[in-house]
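Same chain as my last thread, 147 residues:
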Amino acid sequence: MNKYRIEAPVRSFSGTSVGVTFSKGTGYVTDETKEGRAAIEYFRRQHYGVALADETTEEERVQELVTGTPAQRDPIVSDEPFDPAKQKVEEVLAYLDEADLDEATRVLDAEAAAKTPRVGITSKREEILAAKTPAAPAGDDTKGAEQ
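reply #2:
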C-alpha cells in the first residue's frame, strides 16, 4: 500500500473532492482500495500534483521548515484527453462527476461509440447530463396579464 500526497491546483482549497479531504490545497489518499486508486487516477488526469507522500525534495523540505507550509508543487500536466476506454467503470464515473457539461458529453459519446459500450456508464447518461445542465430560468408569471 502506498500513500499519496495530492496537491490541488487551487492552493487555498479546503474541502472534499472524489472522497479525498483537502486542507489548504493538500490531501492524502492510499492506493489500498479501488476508490483510492480511482481517485489517484482522477487527480492525475485533472492536473493535480500527485506524489508518494514520502517523496519530498530537499528544496521542498527547506521551504517547509522555513515557512511552515508545504511547498507549492507544479501539477502533472497531460496533453492527452481523457479516454474512457482506458479506464475502469468506477474511474470513468468519478471523472464524470467532476467534468463540466461539454467534457461529460464528449466522454459519454466516446463510451457510446466504443466497440463494446459499458452499460454501467451508458445507462447513466441522461442522469449525468441532467445534473450538469443549468436549470432554465423560471417562466414569466405575468403571461397573459393585461396592464
